[in-house]
Amino acid sequence: MKYLFALFVLLGTVELSAQNDKQDIKSLLGEFLSNVESREMHERFWADELVYTSSSGARFGKNEIMYGFDDDPKDQTPGPKYYAEEVEVMVYGNIATLVFKLIAENPDDSQLRYYNSGTFQKQKGNWKAIIWQATKIPGE
């Protein structure tokens, strides 16, 4: 009976940890989407070994993303606002998957929608995206 109780305690601890990790990843996603123009946010979100496949089929890594930032931006034109719908996170130890619908709301009120999925790894206590896939939703 003592071993059965210990097993239940252990399973409860694992489930609580997974729930905390799910919330951490959802919060990280929300913060990222609110700060997509921040170099620091991209540094924090993407792992160094990232493999990103864009909706156009281009494949690149973190270096290419970071290269796109200019320390002295000349174009101050407002870009789209991003938010997520239908967010699901599944945690498997120090690996997690994230799937969601990304909405890009342009300044002219038009929208683009994408299915996004990512694989995260916990590195030095922080979740980092190691694989990312974006697919434009047809007809939306």
How would you describe the overall organization of this protein?
- With 140 residues, the chain is of the alpha+beta class.
- It has a single domain (2-136), classed as Nuclear Transport Factor 2, Chain: A, CATH 3.10.450.
- The protein contains three helices and six strands.
- The protein has a six-stranded mixed beta sheet.
- A hairpin with a 5-residue loop joins strand 4 and strand 5.
- It is globular.
- The chain starts with a helix and ends with a strand.
The percent range for strand residues is: 35-45%
Compute the number of structural domains.
Answer: 1
Q: What top-tier CATH class fits best? A: Alpha Beta
- Overall pLDDT: 87
What letter string, H or E per element, gives the SSE order?
Answer: HHEEHEEEE
- What would you say the CATH architecture is? Roll
End-to-end CA span: 56 Å
Major sheet attributes: 6 strands, mixed
- Main-sheet strand order equals 2-1-6-5-4-3
The gyration radius over C-alpha positions equals 18 Å
Q: What is the β-strand count? A: 6
- Count of DSSP helices? 3
Query: Which structural class matches the secondary elements?
Result: alpha+beta
- The CATH topology turns out to be Nuclear Transport Factor 2, Chain: A
Q: Helicity level, as a percent range?
A: 25-40%
**Uncertain regions: pLDDT < 50 for 5+ in a row?**
none
Q: Overall 3D geometry?
A: globular
